[in-house]
Each structure stands twice: as structure tokens, then as C-alpha cells.
Amino acid sequence: PETAAEPDAAAEPETTAGPETAAGPDEAPPSALRRHRRALVVAAAVVVLVVAAAGTVVAYGPDRLRALGVPAPTPTPTVPRPTPTPVPPALATPSGTATPDAAAIRGRLGALLASKSLGKGFGAYVVDEVSGAVLVDQRGTSAVTPASTAKLATTTAALASLGPQTRFTTSVVRGKGGVTLVGGGDPTLLGPGRQPPMAGYPKYARLATLAAQTAKALGKPAGRITVRVDDSLYSGPRLGPGWKPNYVPDGNVAPVDALMIDHGQADPRKSKRVGDPAVAAGRAFASLLAKHGVHVSGTVTREKTAKHAATLAQVRSPTVGDLVEETLTNSDNDMAEALARHVALNEGLPGSFPGGASAVHTVLARLGVADGIHLYDGSGLSPYDRVTAQALARVLRLAASSGYLELGSVPSGLPVGGYTGTLTTRFGQAHSGVGVVRAKTGTLDGVSSLAGYVQDRDGRVIVFAFVANGFPRTKTLQAEVVLDRLAAGLASCGCG
After folding, report:
1. What are phi and psi of 453, to 5 degrees?
2. C or N: which end of the chain has fewer Cβ atoms within 10 Å?
3. Residue (of 29, 459, 354) closest to 201 by Cα position
4. Has 402 been annotated as catalytic?
5. Element holding 461 (H helix, E strand)
């Protein structure tokens, strides 16, 4: 297949400079969600009523709710969360529904599966979520370039290794003649003047809080102090294997650094990223200290923190569960790379690209879903990444199973067709998928992928993975339309 490494911005906003609008609890998904894992997977029907409060009529969604006897929840127009809580358990696959018929599904999708718009390296794998019965396998075991659907592997490994309640700490410690800002691998740390997308969810850490705590701890220091930064938590190159040099200036991703603010943006209002996120964060921190009356001198430089240095201040990131949802909903490349490195460190490996790739594979192997997944980075930007459609489907089915409640942020974080994240503008020509398909997108030159869940007309949950490779970059939109129609075809199928 033709490999590619540059997102098609006109086709899909795969990289976002920061988290999108969100609202909800400060902590990870509540216990009600965890008790109803399978219900969470198919909650797109409920989302229809929440995000369509203005009166939009969406095909299939409301009708399915009425057919299931589930009362419509009270709409909350100002809270466009991908998954409302609690999720009615009646939305799980009805026990009396028959397993979808593979021949019927292949007959329904046959023309689309053969579309030339999907390129020469197209792979498809579709399974019944409950039974695991294979419904479609078209080159499903052939390794292809996944683009951002690789984030499904990274986030699953992060939840399994770190746990959904883990948080990352950014701190300030005493140094020689001053203070050192120590990076804890939280790219969501808010810089000066940056406001969270929506108050309350999730609770992002602020550099301003660190500055206020530090100034208070210092009291009235005699003379001037210096500000240094320590980003030694990560190691190795800061740009991934095969990444194009324009990724950073174009704003697709920041150099991977353990210390950054605002996803490494030079200006919160623009997507362009800085070349040295740690030093940029240090300079912003020094300016904030000055506003608190602390006399700062000299330039910001790097310094490895002494082992027993006294901690003056610290702030903590949102939970891993929250960060996974952000990563998947908005296809956040910075967060995906951070999660891969944290998995590496937790698994006793270096916080580097090779360490992250190896650790993710190790964790997935423990879960029994590593076969067919070979990554070089955590975000899917590398043209060297290879997965099979079958492997993506296995990861998704595992995340939806009742035996792995800790993986709940994977299905809950997936965008909803026509409404949230990278699927907001999708399914315009495949209406039966609107509000019903919940899936991760992926776009690189000559690559378009879509993998997730859908509830068919019989109420059965279907897991699918479609990965198109080898088409001209100028045909990206055509490939996306075909992928949308494939997913919508599953949604509109009464194939039991």
C-alpha cells in the first residue's frame, strides 16, 4: 500500500490544538457507565436526543429509542458530551435478537466493498460484538497503514497499564539559586490566558496555579532567582519515525516533550507549535512569577532536578480516562504520544518512541490483542505503522466487553457520526449513520480509516474496521464518503 504521512486538513481535522468543548464530572466515567459497558458502546442513540435539542430530526435514532421503550432523557443543549450519563441499560443488545447473517451483510455492502475509491490496499473486518461471529473479512488480516486509528491501540494500552484514575503531575522544586519547573508529561497544561473549553470538565491543570503556589512558598526571597526546566522524563528524538518536517509548523503535532503548555502552541489562538515546548513553558512560568512580585533573572535553561529537591508546588492533570476520551474524540496527537510514553515508563521502559511502541505491544499482548499491530509511534502519524483491520476490531470488541471495565473510556471517547469530534462533519451522504455510528477516524496521504461500533436496525451491536490505503491524496474525500456509507449500511441493516 502507498504509505503517507501528512494529514489532509481539508478532509478531516485529525489534529486539534486543544480539547474540544466538553462537560461533565471532574473524575473518570462514573460507576453507572462501568456497570453498563455494552450499553455505553451503543449509546449513540441517546446522544441523538441530547445533541439534537434544537429540534433536529435524525434518522433511526429516536425511533429506536421508542421501540426499545426507553424514555427520552431531558436534553442539555449546553453539554455536548459524547455519552450522556447514566446510560439506560435497555440500550444493550436485546437478548432475543439473532446474530446478523454474514451473507446478508456482505450482499448489502458488496458494491461498496469493491469501490475503487478505497484504493488497492483496502482491508475490512466486521464482527458481531456479542458472539464474535465474523460477518465480513476482506483482506482483514493484511497489514495496512492505519493513520489515527492506531490511537485505539495506544489508548487501550494506556487504560490497561496505567488505569483510568491515574493523573500526571507537573511540579516546581527548589534548585541552585532558583526554581525548576519539572514536566510530568501533561500536554494539556494550560498556559497564561488560556481558558478551558468548558468550565468544569475535565479539570485541566494551570501554569498560573503553579506560579501562585510557588510565589507563596518562596515568600520574599532575597535577591533574584533563576527559572530552569526539567523535561528529562522523556528521552530520545522528539519527532517520530517518518514524520514530515512540516508537522510542527503546520500545527499537526508538537515536538514530543515531557513539559509543555497549550499542546505546545506558540499562540493559543493559532495551531502552530513551538520548536522547544519546555523552554517556552519555562519562559511563560517566569513571566507569571514576575507578576506575583518574584524577581526573576537570566534566561530559562534546562537542569536535571536533584533527587531530593524540595517541592514548592504541583498540579495534576485530568485522569487518564478523561485524557483517553479527549485523545479519541479529537484525534489528539500530542496526548496520544504522551500516553504512549507513560505506558513505557510504567512498564519499565524508556519514555521514547521505541519504548512507547514496545510497551504498547507488550500490554496489548497481555490482553490477547497484539497480533497484527506494529507501531512506531503512539498517534498513527508515522508512515511505518502497520495494523490489520482484524486487529482493530479485536481491540474494539475487547474494550466493549464486560470483563474489561477499565477500558470504558475507549468506546465512550469515540466520536459520534454527524455530531462530535472528527465525525462532526461526516455522514452527510450517509444519513442512516448519523447519531448511530461511533468510530475513530484516520487520515494521511492515501490513507483513510474508520473503526468503531454501530447498532443495526435489529438492535444488534456490530464492531467494524475499515482501512483504505493506496488511493491518490486528491481522492481522500471520496474514500471517506465510501467508508461512511459502509458504516451507515451496517446501521440500516436488519440482517438478523
Report:
1. -125, 155
2. C
3. 29
4. no
5. strand 461-469
SS3 assignment, position 139 = coil
Q: Which of 151, 171, 352, 449 is catalytic?
A: 151
Residues 6+ apart with CB under 8 A from 107: none
Pull the grid cell for residue 461: 451491536
Catalytic residue among 115, 117, 148, 379: 148
Q: What is residue 206's three-state secondary structure? A: strand
304 is catalytic: no
- Residues in CB range of 209: below 8 A, 6 or more apart: 313, 315
Backbone torsions φ then ψ of 105, nearest 5 degrees: -70, -45
Q: Is 31 a catalytic residue?
A: no
447's grid cell? 490513507
Which secondary-structure segment (H or E) carries 138? strand 134-138
Q: Round the CA-based radius of gyration of the chain to a whole number and report it.
A: 23
* CA 294/CA 281 separation, integer angstroms: 17
Strand order in the sheet with 123-128: 134-138, 123-128, 461-469, 447-455, 438-444
Catalytically annotated residue among 161, 171, 317, 331: 331
pLDDT digits (tens), the chain, 496 positions: 223 333 333 333 333 333 322 222 222 333 333 333 434 333 433 333 333 323 332 333 333 323 323 233 333 333 333 333 333 333 355 556 778 899 999 999 999 999 999 999 999 999 999 999 999 999 999 999 999 999 999 999 999 999 999 999 999 999 888 999 999 999 999 999 777 665 556 789 999 999 999 999 998 876 789 999 999 999 999 999 999 999 999 999 999 999 999 999 988 778 889 999 999 999 999 999 999 999 999 999 999 998 889 999 999 999 999 999 999 999 999 999 999 999 999 999 999 999 999 999 999 999 999 999 999 999 999 999 999 999 999 999 999 998 899 999 999 999 999 999 999 999 988 889 999 999 999 999 999 999 999 999 988 999 999 999 999 999 999 999 999 999 999 999 888 7
Calpha distance 465→406 (Å, rounded): 22
